[in-house]
Design a protein that fits this description.
The chain is about 65% helix and about 0% strand. By secondary structure, the protein is mainly alpha-helical. It holds the Pfam family HDOD.
C-alpha cells in the first residue's frame, strides 16, 4: 500500500521509531501462548510506562472500588487488549506532541476530539459486547493521518480548515483535490510504519468508507459512529434525540443500513443512549489524555 505522494512518504520515513517497549508489548500480546508474567516483563524496564498504566487503571474512567497498586494487578484487571492500547496510545501521542510542540495551543481542539472519539469507540464496543480496549485506540488515532499531513504540507494543511472539522463527503473530496491523498490513507500508512495491528490499520483507512473494510467492517463502523458522536459533543448546543437522528441522516445517510447489514444491534433509542453515555463519561475521563501525553 502506498500513499503515492512523495511528501507524505518522506514525512513517514522521518518519523522516529516507537520505543522498544512498544515492540516488546506488540510481540507478547500477539502470541496466544503469552502469560501475564510475559507482558509484565516486557513493560517493567520502562518505568514511565509502568506509571502511566497504573494511573490509567486507577482513573475515574475505570471507576474501580479498590486501588490497583502493582503492574501485575493492572495487567490482570485490565487485560492484554487494554494494556496494549495504553502502551500504543502513549507512544503515538507523545511522539506527535513532541514533533508538533510549536502548534500545541492550536491543536487543543484536535486532541480533545481524538480523546472523545476514542472514548466513544470504547463505549460503542461495550454496548455491542466487544473488547473495548482496541476500539479506544482506533478512535483515539482515527485522525492521526491529519497530523502527518500537517507536517508534510506546512502552511498548506491549515489547522483551522482541516484538523477539527467533520470530514464529510465535500471535505474529503477537497482534501483529495488539494493534496492528492486522504488523511485516512495517510493514517493507515502511519500505523503500518509503526507495525500496529491490522485491525487498527484497517479501521483508520476505512473509517469514512466502512463498506470497503472487508472483514474489518465492524471496526470501521464503530470508529465512524464514534467520530460522529464526538463531533456532536462539541456542538454549540447539546443536541437532543431528534437533532441527533437528523444529523446522522444528513451526514451519514447510509450508516444505519450498513450497521444492520453488519449484524450489529441497533434500536430506536441506540443513538440517544450512546450519546448520553459519552456525554457523562467524557467529563469523568478527560484526564486520560493528559496521562497518556505526559512523558
Amino acid at each position: 500500500m502506498t500513499t503515492q505522494h512523495p511528501s507524505i512518504d518522506k514525512q513517514l520515513e522521518r518519523l522516529p521509531p516507537l520505543p522498544v517497549t512498544v515492540t516488546r508489548v506488540l510481540h507478547v500480546t500477539a502470541n496466544p501462548e503469552s502469560s501475564a508474567n510475559d507482558l509484565m516483563k516486557a513493560i517493567l524496564p520502562d518505568q514511565t510506562m509502568c506509571v502511566t498504566i497504573l494511573r490509567v487503571a486507577n482513573s475515574a474512567l475505570y471507576g474501580r472500588p479498590k486501588k490497583v497498586a502493582s503492574l501485575e494487578k493492572a495487567i490482570v484487571v485490565l487485560g492484554f487488549d487494554e494494556i496494549r492500547s495504553i502502551v500504543l496510545g502513549k507512544a503515538a501521542l507523545t511522539t506527535f506532541r513532541d514533533m508538533l510542540r510549536n502548534h500545541q495551543a492550536e491543536l487543543e481542539g484536535f486532541w480533545d476530539h481524538a480523546f472523545t472519539c476514542g472514548l466513544a469507540a470504547r463505549i460503542i464496543a461495550e454496548y455491542i459486547g466487544l473488547q473495548s480496549g482496541q476500539f479506544f485506540m482506533a478512535g483515539l488515532l482515527h485522525d492521526f493521518g491529519k497530523l502527518a499531513m500537517l507536517l508534510a504540507f506546512p502552511g498548506k494543511y491549515e489547522i483551522r480548515n482541516w484538523m477539527t472539522a467533520l470530514s464529510d463527503g465535500r471535505l474529503l473530496k477537497q482534501e483529495m483535490a488539494d493534496f492528492g491523498v486522504s488523511h485516512a490513507v495517510v493514517g493507515s500508512r502511519l500505523l503500518q510504519h509503526w507495525q500496529f495491528p491490522d485491525t487498527l490499520i484497517s479501521a483508520l483507512r476505512h473509517h469514512h468508507q466502512p463498506n470497503q473494510a472487508g472483514s474489518h467492517c465492524g471496526y470501521a463502523l464503530v470508529v465512524q459512529l464514534a467520530d460522529f458522536l464526538a463531533h456532536c459533543c462539541n456542538a454549540e448546543e447539546k443536541p437532543n434525540e431528534t437533532t441527533l437522528k437528523e444529523l446522522l441522516a444528513e451526514q451519514l445517510p447510509a450508516f444505519v443500513e450498513q450497521w444492520r447489514q453488519g449484524k450489529l444491534p441497533w434500536e430506536e433509542t441506540t443513538l440517544e443512549y450512546l450519546f448520553a453515555w459519552l456525554w457523562v463519561d467524557r467529563s469523568h475521563g478527560r484526564a486520560i489524555l493528559d496521562i497518556l501525553a505526559t512523558r
